[in-house]
Amino acid sequence: MAWQTSPFITLLSLLILLFMISITTEGTKKSSYGVHNVNGYKSRKLFVFGDSYADTGNFLDSQAYEPPYGITFPHQPSGRFSDGRILTDYIASSMNIKSPALYSLRNSSDLQFGINFAYGGTSVFNTFLKEPDMVIQIDTFEELIKQNIYTKSEIDSSVALVTVAGNDYYPYLYNGKSIEDIFVFGASLIKQLSINLKRIHSVGINKIAIGLLEPAGCLPGITITYDKCNDTVNWIAMKHNEMLLQAVEDLNKENESAFVVTLDLYNSFLSVIETMQKHSTVENVLRPCCVPESSIYQCGTVDERGQKKYSLCDNPELSFFWDDFHPTQKGWEAVYKMVQASLSL
Questions:
Q1: How far apart are CA 220 and CA 202, in angstroms?
Q2: Which end of the chain has fewer CB atoms within 10 angstroms, the N or the C?
Q3: pLDDT tier at 43 (50, 70, 90 boundaries)?
């Protein structure tokens, strides 16, 4: 005898089925992190190399893990050298992903958006001895790739961000080296940078975004005794950028398609600073929000009695610079908007 099903039960079953299908469909559109994942497509990865302009917390014992860093985002120190988000965060957001996992704090379940190897103080060469230079960062990246953490297609569709070289020049500036010595050094720096970019590309990453040097002569750590940008230091940064642009052009010509794009941090910084000078209520735009008591590198530090060795502005959103060398979240946001078109992500 055949089972008899009432029209009501049939209709109820159909409604339940449609509801379950709608839930399943919605689940394919967003991952648990709210990242688009249509039809099972895995999110693109971001791999980050370089210094404190890209480090979101790898330097575990740095001052960036002390108050007042992070007061804007995530409302506590997170290892970012700013009051909040930095360039890495904005680029990840433009890719519709979370900022990639920190290499220092990684675990196997936390790598779906890529890995950040950037480390505050990093240089192209091993300038400060303690920090892992860029070669070491790339060595580590290659070792992880050999472990088949990612598929070839995932690597092919990934993006690499590189911000490095400022720390290489600072010792030359502070030690009073001649311009000729600095340019000889700069040429060797660009040569090594080209090798580094080739290595990243050889792993399979087909899009690398590298930042040009910022106008270093306008950083508070330089202007602290001038209250204006140092033209000589900015000129050195410009010459570095000219050499880097030529190196990138040569690298792209060697390949069937351009794989390196440049982010013009130099002109972006200057443009935002100029705009703020015209419209900001801050008396001196070159002055950081976190002002050191007597010397640079003191934001976030205290003396033996626990007294702060810095003073803090009332509103970081009104400042371009957070500390002696790094922009505020608002500063990075403005800079990112200016370089965003170069990314084409």
A1: 38
A2: N
A3: confident
Pick the more confident residue, 15 or 228. 228
Residue 163 backbone dihedrals phi, psi, to 5 degrees: -135, 110
Exposure letters 318-327 (e unless 16+ CB within 10 A, then b): ebbbbbbbbb
Helix axes 231-253, 179-202, angle to 10 degrees: 30
Give the active site residues: 52, 323, 326
For residue 169, pLDDT beyond 50: yes
Among 24-38, 58-72, 211-225, 236-250, which is the least confidently predicted range?
A: 24-38
